[in-house]
Design brief:
By secondary structure, the chain is mostly helical. It has two domains: 37 residues, no CATH class; 83 residues, no CATH class. It contains six helices and no strands.
Length: 122
């Protein structure tokens, strides 16, 4: 059996994703690995995976994160949960329909991946 090089594997992966459009297979694999590592809404280990699960585009997630941290700094490194939730809804109006656990999962993901200083306020 011939040994395959990494470029061949990358091409196969790209073909699966771009030509077959089977992104769900990739997402399921990532979810399986993340859950194996302990990812859940109560304990998110990946902001990106939370965003995928909640259908939050990366640009909006980044904008929300920056605004939360801006407000955190403006309030002398303090911020309350309601303020963070209002920021999320301002940038993502459909978040009004999110459960509290989903809002908190997003905020925990932001804290873990970008701004750990906000974690005590979630």
């Amino acid at each position: 059996m011939a040994v395959r090089n990494m470029k061949d594997i990358e091409n196969d992966f790209g073909d699966l994703f771009y030509h077959n459009g089977d992104a769900s297979l990739i997402l399921d694999a990532v979810r399986d690995m993340a859950e194996h590592l302990g990812h859940s809404l109560e304990n998110p280990i990946s902001l990106s995976l939370v965003c995928l699960n909640l259908a939050i585009p990366a640009k909006i997630a980044d904008d929300i994160s920056v605004e939360i941290f801006r407000e955190f700094n403006k309030q002398n490194e303090q911020i309350d949960y309601d303020t963070m939730k209002k920021i999320i809804i301002r940038f993502l109006p459909e978040a009004k329909k999110f459960s509290e656990i989903s809002i908190k999962a997003f905020l925990k993901g932001v804290a873990k991946s970008k701004y750990p200083d906000i974690e005590p306020f979630i």
